[in-house]
Amino acid sequence: MGANDQSMFTRIVYGILSAIAIVYITGQVFAFMGIGFEVYGIYVLYIVGLALMYGFLPQDVGNMFQ
């Protein structure tokens, strides 16, 4: 483990906090512009899914495919 490795808990917290921030900020911006969630919602959910996978998937994957 190097000095730059994050613990699993820290990665999960960062993933959840970034998902909350993304949903809140994009919701506020698109509400200001008068665009409904049904237009941009699938993209926000995709980004949130990526953020959560970043938190839950392990950083070291092993040597299975080498």
Task: Annotate the secondary structure layout.
Elements lengths: L7 H26 L3 H20 L10
The gross shape turns out to be elongated
Count of separate structural domains: 1
- Count of DSSP helices? 2
β-strand amount: under 5%
Total E-strand runs:
0
Q: What letter string, H or E per element, gives the SSE order?
A: HH
The share of residues in helices is 55-70%
The low-confidence runs, each spanning 5 or more residues with pLDDT under 50, are: none
The biggest sheet amounts to: none
Structural class: mainly alpha
* Rg (C-alpha, Å): 16 Å
Mean pLDDT: 84
Separation, N- and C-terminal Cα atoms: 21 Å
General description of the model:
Helices cover 70% and strands 0% of the residues. The chain has 66 residues and is an all-alpha fold. The protein contains 2 helices and no strands.
Summary keywords:
single chain, 66 residues, mainly alpha, 0% strand
Short characterization:
The chain is built from two helices and no strands.
